[in-house]
Amino acid sequence: MGTDRIEPFSFRNNSMKASFRPFVFALAGAIAAPPVFAQDTQPAPVRLSFEQPAAARAHSGIATINPFAVILGGVNGDVEVNIGTGTTGALSASWFPDDLNYTAADFTFRYYPGERNPKGFSIGASIGYLSTEHDDGTDEAKGPTIGFIGGYNWLLGKSERLAIATGLGLKRLIADSDKYPDAPEVVPSGRLGIGLSF
User: Element (H or E) spanning 13, and its range?
Assistant: First the structure.
């Protein structure tokens, strides 16, 4: 009779253990599943070179030409190149024949406070050479120049390839007053160019 009493008790315990096993496995699977699915649904981002914003692209400089100078029969343009953080160096040349009789060449050092050169506001100092003539072809003034100019450049378009350069300043002509009595001491200088960045 002792054996008959023990068998039903052990049978019920084994049945209860067996009945709980599926729930234990299901609970363990539910706990382990979220990290697996999270890893599958969150792949590492991939960034392609052509998807970078235009502002992140660096430009070495700009080359511009004054369209109004061409209309007047002359030439005026410059090439500006980055030489450091917030600094550029530019070579410019101007030539206007006939009534104006004006020729000039300058090297300008520019500083960009925003350090996004050659884009934005800049201030600069220049050194160069200037030659002007009277209407009869005689020399009015010739000599070196030093100057100051402020300006602003725009780089437009998705790739910022279109460059518009502006500026206004003054140059002092260092000329022999005895040889060139009509030479102006101060000459206004300006910059207006349309071109491309590179």
Answer: helix 2-41
For 67-85, give the DSSP string.
HHHHHTT-EEEEEEEEEET
Per-residue pLDDT tens over the stretch 120-152: 999 999 999 999 988 777 888 999 999 999 999
Residue 172 lies in a domain: yes
Nearest to 101 by CA among 139, 156, 44: 139
Same domain, 114 and 21: no
Torsion sign (Cα): 31, 33, 36, 41: negative
pLDDT digits (tens, 9 = 90+) for 142-184: 999 999 999 999 999 999 999 999 999 999 999 988 889 888 9
CB 155 within 8 A of CB 125: no
| Whether 40 contacts 27, CB under 8 Å | no
- 52 lies in some domain: no
Same domain flag for 152 and 101: yes
Nearest CA to 132 out of 90, 96, 107, 169 is that of 96
Residue 112: CATH number of its domain:
2.40.160
Q: Are residues 112 and 171 in the same domain?
A: yes
| Cα distances (angstroms) measured from residue 50 to each of 44, 60, 91, 117, 156 | 18, 19, 32, 22, 18
The whole-angstrom separation of Cα 155 and Cα 164 is 7
Region of 130 on the Ramachandran plot (φ > 0 left; ψ -120 to 50 alpha; else beta): beta
If DSSP codes are grouped into helix, strand and coil, which group holds residue 179?
Answer: coil
